[in-house]
Amino acid sequence: MENAVQDMKKAHKIIAEFTYEKGQVDRGYTNRTLYVDLSNNRVESRPVTEDMKEKFIGGRGFGLWLLWNGVKDETKWNDPENEVVISAGPIAGITTYPGSGKSLVVTLSPLTNVPVDSNVGGYFGPLLKFAGWDAIEVQGKAKSEVVVFIDGKEGKVTIEEAPEEAINSHILGEQLTEIYADNEEDKRSISVVSAGEGAGHTLLGCLNFSFYDVNRKYVRYKQAGRGGIGTVFRDKKVKAIVVKYPNVKGDSNHPADWKKVADTGVRLHKEIHTYDQHQCKMRTTGTPYLVSIMNDYDLLPVKNFKYGSSPDAMKLAGTVWTPRYRLGKHDGCWYGCTLMCCKTVDDFELKTGPYKGDKVAIDGPEYETIGGVATNCNIFDPDYTLECNFYCDTYGIDTISFGTMLGFLMECWEAGVLDKEKTGGLELTWGNVDAAMELLHQMGAGYGFGKLAGLGIRKLKKHFVEHFGADEHFLNDIGMEAKGLEYSEYVSKESLAQQGGYGLTNKGPQHDEAWLIFMDMVNNQLPTFEDKAEALHYFPMFRTWFGLNGLCKLPWNDIQPGDNKTTDEPHKVPEHVQNYVDLFNGVTGRSINKEDILTMSEGVYNFQRVFNLRMGYGTRKHDAIPYRSMGPVTVEEYESRADRYDRQLKEILGIADPSSKTTEEKISLLRKHREQQYELLIDAVYKRRGWTSDGVPTMETLKRLGIDYPDVVRIVEKHIG
Amino acid sequence: MKVLRFNKDVCSVCGECEKACASLYFKDESREKAALRVDMSSDSKDEPVMKACIQCGECIPICPVGALYRAKNGTVLIKKKICVGCMACVGFCPHSVMYYHADSIEPVKCISCGACVKACPADALRLEEEQVPAEV
User: What residue numbers bound the domain in which A570 lies?
Assistant: First the structure.
């Protein structure tokens, strides 16, 4: 590898160079952002204003603000004006508190045409900050494949033509880490952001953010999965963005009160040490612990979200994965994460595709990957799950969008919408592992049916109606997408709160914003519309805050203090909310309280809603969801849970004898009721959020949150009139 | 390897051991900077208790950067240059004897140097030769 890598480095041609004063982080901020214009090979420094910090905080907030100022009303995802913005946030970069190294990536999504923000681990965001920058904006398009290199050791940013390196991440990450590190010990100073060939051939592209594992001695990758950010990245002909910053220390973030930050971290480390093995077992299992729980509660997607469980689900449960992991080594995706949910399976021999026969290390699988590419497609094979996970990652394809899209294709096959002639020979039957992998390789390389599949569900539906004579209503019912983005892997059918949790989001049906299923269905804590609306205000706002500060949400509620159950609001995990207040104040020197967390988030969240309006979306009609996410579409779905649904017809709709009706009639009655319920929920939620009945933030709300900038008002006034 | 051990029967909790440790490493007598702590027992027994690292090595695999290692003489040491101050070792120490304080990004642990043994007026402390435990 070494000689080949040195030749690749020699083939680099520097086409822009920018030197800067290295400076020092001041209480979580560098107070400047880096702007890179690939069309004109220009790099510049831009100041961070006090207003930016006050209203947008950092991370997703900075990303949205910078993107807003970079694009025009008419900008499309593949126009040069679109930007990929990466920012960590003021708390990110501390080393004592688990989950404090996240980066937030923002761009105009190829799937939804509105901004998407994605939360990702790996070292990039914190190292970027220590190298001197609160955020990086990449705008324009390069003429040939480039690497943008931020050298925090020398104080230099270069745009370099990089013709020889791979595009697929598992090779590119190793190559670039080797090229830019001084030696083996220095490799942990490097983080690479890359996509993959599949991101260039589909709209489902994700980004990979690397970190060097000093124990295992190889590069590992976390994903900014949702919304097609990797597609934008490849459209700009960026091979990778690389940052280098050596000698990270516990006070590199220069917190106002390091001791407070350390005390808070030690408290959580002790809690994880004592309780993780009795709670979620994250340290040994990772997020797959969720598979058996979701299956037990009928929430695990099976056969395109038709069902919530399967007798085969335990073949992919957490207990199956733990023996396959290489345990005993530290696993966190940033220093100090003792919850360490990202596990590795090492020495896995690939059975298909361009790397067949290679033995690779695979990060994952996450619960979502299992739910999407496996159970949702009625596949229960762990080896397939690992191989699919690996190829999605290296190709730069989002496992969630891939899995949800594939489930849709398989149901289309079952319903006779697709056949071998239409799919070019792929038999997309439930459970067909070979066809699934073949489709993924087609998407990775951009040929065959894979080219069509890579467009995502919304465009697939259109194509099937226009060219294959498919029934539009049926496809709209079963195509699990909203706003153009594929659903993530929880069955929301029986939880009105979670239907809202997916439908009433800014960026599409992902689980960053709200995860209310347990609260609603298991603990019955949200009985009224007002309760649901309150939860659909509190939790999206609370969860948004993590994206403003560069934090991971898992240490908030996938580990809980021993006495959490005795508190007033155990589902909020109040001691941890206080931890976050302490961390923010400890880093920034400010004095916020728990309520301020919500206000800070509300400002950014409402700004994002207005951004959606600006791009031509963002009103009530765009918060519609497919009926499969609300209730049974087909006869077999209804009849598989007939007791439950018949009981609801009796108790809620007053139908004394459901057996007197056909299943089709019962489906129709239930559907009318559930669709009405969703509309009533929307009314309650909009009211709680301070929006009009069309979902537009009112002027009063904008003023209250201090985001009544002239451009924001201009957009909102058009809709409020 | 040498491990710090304690004779509770002769200790008067005078604090000279803690002062000696903190002074040696931090030029400061504050007991919070010492790598050993001597207090009256927190349970009903009316006797002093000494807490200091016993070189068990359970912290070594916890460290994300490999800053903790067992020296040739068996003592567990911290490579301060590499340490990123994450405090995972502090949180996971089974005996809660990895300490930290505001003036040191790296944690503080007993390395069996013997300064406290010399400083103790009552001979309550000694360094005992013990077997290096198996690798965790």
Answer: 496-630+665-720
User: How does pLDDT run across A359-396, given as a tens digit for each residue?
Assistant: 999 987 999 999 999 999 999 999 999 999 999 999 99
Q: Are residues A309 and A202 in the same domain?
A: no
Instruction: Write out pLDDT tens, residues A323-346.
Output: 999 888 889 999 999 999 999 999
Peptide bond preceding A527 in cis form (omega within 30 of 0): no
How far is A229 from A118, CA to CA, in rounded Å? 8
Q: What is the CATH number of the domain that holds A27?
A: 3.60.9.10
Contact B105 A338 (CB under 8 A): no
Q: Report the C-alpha gap between B115 and B20 in whole angstroms.
A: 6
Q: Which two tokens stand for residue A73?
A: 């009303």
Residues of chain B with pLDDT under 50: none
What is the residue type of A59? Answer: G
B106–chain A nearest CA distance, Å: 8
Tokens 């295992």 map to which residue?
A216
Looking at the structure, tell me whether residues A92 and A137 fall in a common domain. Answer: yes
> What would the two tokens of residue A401 be?
């969008």
Give the pLDDT confidence of A557-604 residue by residue, as tens digits: 999 999 999 999 998 999 999 999 999 999 999 999 999 999 999 999
Quick check: A79 and A101 in contact, CB under 8 A?
no
On whether residue A615 sits in a domain, the answer given is yes
Does A274 reside within a domain?
Answer: no
Residue of B62, B63, B105 with shortest CB distance to A249: B105
Number of domains in chain A: 3
Note whether A720 and A609 are within 8 A (CB): no
Q: Quick: pLDDT tens for A79-128.
A: 999 999 999 999 999 999 999 999 999 999 999 999 999 999 999 999 99
Quick check: is A252 in a domain?
no
End-to-end CA distance of chain A: 64
The count of structural domains within chain B is: 1
CATH number of the domain within which B37 lies: 3.30.70.20
Is there a domain that residue B132 lies in?
A: no
Chain B partners within 8 Å of A215 (Cβ): 66
Distance between CA A653 and CA A639 in Å, rounded? 18
CATH value at residue A576: 1.10.599.10
Tell me the H-state helices in A396-432.
399-414, 420-423
d(CA A392, CA A397): 5
Is residue A383 located within the same domain as residue A447? yes
Global pTM?
0.97
Residue that is last in its domain, among A223, A244, A265: A244
- CB neighbour class for A484 (10 Å; exposed up to 12, middle 13-18, buried from 19): buried
Query: Torsion angle of alpha carbons A72, A77, A83, A86, nearest 10°?
Result: 130
Amino acid at A339: L
| Domain span holding position B109 | 2-125
Cβ pair B102:A259 closer than 8 A: yes
Assess contact for A120 and A102: CB atoms under 8 A: yes
Do A357 and A442 belong together in one domain?
A: yes
Task: Answer whether A336 sits within 8 Å of B105, measured CB to CB.
Answer: no
A445: Cβ contacts below 8 Å, ≥ 6 apart: A197, A198, A201, A354
Whole-angstrom distance, CA of residue A609 vs CA of residue A506 = 6
Same domain, residue pair A293 and A357: yes
A396 & A289 share domain: yes
Same domain, A133 and A162: yes
Q: In this complex, is the C-beta atom of A214 within 8 Å of any C-beta atom belonging to chain B?
A: yes
For A266, the closest of B66, B83, B90 (CB atoms) is B90
How far is the CA of A368 from the CAs of A291, A300, A508, A546, A653, in angstroms?
Answer: 9, 10, 16, 20, 35
For chain A, percent of residues with pLDDT exceeding 90: 95
